[in-house]
Amino acid sequence: MEQVIKTIEEVNDVLNGFIWGPYMLIFFLLVGAMFTIRTGFFQITQFKNWIDVTFLNVFRDRKVLKTDDKHSISQFQSLCTALAATIGTGNIAGVATAIALGGPGAVFWMWLSAFLGMMTNYAENTLGIKYRYRNERGDWVGGAMIYIERGLHCKWLAVIFSVFCFLASFGIGNMTQANSIASGLSDSFGVPTYITAVVVMFFVALVIVGGIKRIASVTEKIVPFMAVFYILGGLVVILMHADKVPGAFAMIFTEAFNFKAAGGGVLGYGIATAMKRGISRGVFSNEAGLGSSVMVHSASDVEEPVIQGMWGVFEVFADTIVVCTITCLTILTSGVYNMEGYLTAIAEGGENAVVSGTTLTANAFATVIPYGDRFVAIAIMMFAFSTILGWSYYGERAVEYLFGIQGILPYKIVFVIVIFFGCTGSLSLVWDIADTLNGFMSVPNLIAVSLLSGEVVKMTKEYLDRKKKMV
Question: Per the confidence metrics, is the pTM higher than 0.85?
């Protein structure tokens, strides 16, 4: 058995090294850059437009918040459900780990991946609305597998994407998140993991049994609260160390272009390490390019594909530019991160010698907020729980595509049961495999959006032309 596990680890290391290696990370950036250039830097030139249509519109148009279509969810609900799946442990532990192992410069490359990823997500959601259809129950069905099949007419590639999504939903969308909840509550509050498992299983089952309408109804309440809760906490820490903010930004930009390789513990992380850690954590956090969130965006009651595309732009902006940046600045201004100390630890004992990302973030919050570890534990609990809900829907879409509607109920039952093992087990290998499966979703998706890029550009141009005529 040990030999089998060792073989699995070795195979996964090779696959993970490819999917999160330099060539694939460059592919992520190039696809985002292509859409950025071909749409005339849409995320900048149309900033006022997409902020107005999305975030600002929430406060003035009831139709954005609620829908009368019993088979759809509102635009705001689609955003919240997508953010529920993307705003997770990666925004807290993942970002901190990127800084610990890649240096402050990793933050710059995370920002760059998010900037370009805005347009990748825009393309995904625009295509998702264009090619979606209603199933036999009248519900919207959309996602990367749908535009791969209907746009590229490539069924086998759509099946590959769905298989990866199905498997990833149990790993990155379930067991790893459940484990984060159980570990946080156990370490900070002494709650036994099996009790956490039963409670999480109950509430997840209660929500997902009601389908996307109930999931969206819950996430539209949880996501705004948890985001504000974490952002305010982070801002308190940052404001208390306001004099360190200029230095933090200087460190980010300086280390982003540090060409010296790590060695001797004090020479620097090096640009290659900063790029790898920053870009991979950025993609892991906002999932732009994976083709995941398009499945829930396609359930929106919106009629104009470009409108939903702009919600995708805002999703990446909120997840990475806002939430992840709060984590970064909290760590870099609080004084808990010492670059020379971390480099020395890595040089002497390897990557496992540094403290975990969760601990680093908790230490940063604890410099200002009493019981900072508990604050972070509560934040992780909310983030991870919402991620489980969002990914349950992604897995459901993949199962329906592969096996039909009859496969949904068995999938939900297994999905809930797996939570128990996630909460109570040791998941180091599961984390690694889940990371690999998550990344492999991007291969068929990035191929599809690249080949269908002409349609995205055309729809964008037509929308902007119509908008000009209306002025």
Answer: yes
